[in-house]
Amino acid sequence: MSDRDQAQQAATAAGDFRTQAVRGGHRRSDEAEHAEAMFMTSSFCFPNAEAAKAAFVDDSGDNVYSRFDNPTVQAFEQRLAMLEGGERCIATASGMAATLALGMALLQAGDKVVCSQAVFGSTLNLWSKYFGKFGVEVVTVDPFDLDAWRAAIDGRTKIAYLETPTNPRCEIVDIRAVADIAHAKGAKLVVDNCFCTPALQRPLELGADIVSHSATKFLDGQGRAVGGALVGSHADLEPVYLFMRSGGPTMSAFNAWVFLKGLETLDIRLRAQSETAMAVATWLTTQPRVKQVYYAGLASHPGYALAKAQQSGFGAVLSFEVEGGQAGAWSVIDATELVSLTGNLGDTRTTITHPSTTTHGRLTEAQRQAAGIESGLIRVSVGLESAADLTADLAKGLAGLAG
Ligand SMILES: Cc1ncc(COP(=O)(O)O)c(C=O)c1O
């Protein structure tokens, strides 16, 4: 590496969030490329047999095989680790692959996982249905009830798992309080930071041990690729790395390159999208056919004070409940023309979803009631369109509910 490249790396390491988001993790190759190179190769060559042995057996650190390590994937890992303030990151093929790798690496039969009941449905399914099958006990708790965490976490608990803000009601869980409870019993707290990303919330600074991500959401931000990641300490993530080498749910070099580009604009996207979300949420509170608006940026939201304390912005996802139950919600959604009707979120294009018949459609009515997912609830992930165009689009459907 040239002296200039070394100086640039040092300046990046000393830089702030925006600087690290565009330059972090990039180690220029001998070709002197400006943008990150995409290493689309399954394996790497050795100059001689002795070097091959050293790489395979003696951990020389040289690249061997892209299921183990790949320079483009490593660049993404180093950049995200910097942004989350963690020592290390492991990139995975999807957000669910990150949770799978975590469980495979850290759990064994007889261990216990205590999981917030307000997490992504597949997360809960993976813990209870699949890890449960191998003798791991999985207990769910109301994430806002600290006594429930205290009662559930015991000496057998290896992982306490939560997501904040929650989907789709945007409620806020107290990361530091749950971390203290978990640590008192020797458990690790894992926080899914999909909705805020490190641009708005840094769970490791609030006491969490590991951050998990679906990079598919805001980290990419442009709806192009599926991926995931875990960020934490070297010690906590070394077993995960070893599982990844054997188990193989790795991120491809192509997707890592896409996510590197996504991270470059993360902060400005999240801040602009949050500002528009605030404008849309405020407008929704003035609409007569809207029964309730859920957005932690509104002073009326129960999580407002906590969100202000543990986040540096309120995020781009909001939800609202309209009159008329499912029929009302469907008519509002079907009347929109600009926004995309799709299940994903975190995109520069605004997406609209009816949680009770899509993302949460497989829950029982009782489970939906417990999670506060009414049939009239609509979730919006606000993108980069103008607030005026978005409110005009939503107004079409709301007008249809009148009378
Ligand atoms: C909060 C949250 N965590 C994890 C996941 C799983 O991520 P992926 O779809 O990348 O596997 C999702 C996916 O929608 C999610 O919304």
Q: Could you describe the 3D structure shown?
A:
The protein has 403 residues and is α/β, with parallel strands linked by helices. The termini are far apart. It has helices at residues 3-13, 17-23, 49-56, 71-84, 95-106, 121-133, 146-152, 175-184, 197-200, 234-247, 253-264, 266-284, 304-310, 325-335, 365-370, 387-401, and strands at 88-92, 112-116, 137-141, 157-163, 188-192, 210-214, 228-232, 290-294, 317-322, 340-341, 351-353, 377-381. The longest helix has 19 residues, at 266-284. The chain has two domains: 3-264, Aspartate Aminotransferase, domain 2 (3-Layer(aba) Sandwich), CATH 3.40.640; 266-401, Aspartate Aminotransferase, domain 1, CATH 3.90.1150. It binds pyridoxal-5'-phosphate. Pyridoxal-5'-phosphate is lined by residues 94-96, 120, 123, 163, 167, 192, 194, 214, 216, 226, 228. Its cofactor is pyridoxal 5'-phosphate.
Compact description:
The chain contains 16 helices and 12 strands. With 403 residues, the protein is α/β, with parallel strands linked by helices. The N and C termini lie far apart (70 Å).
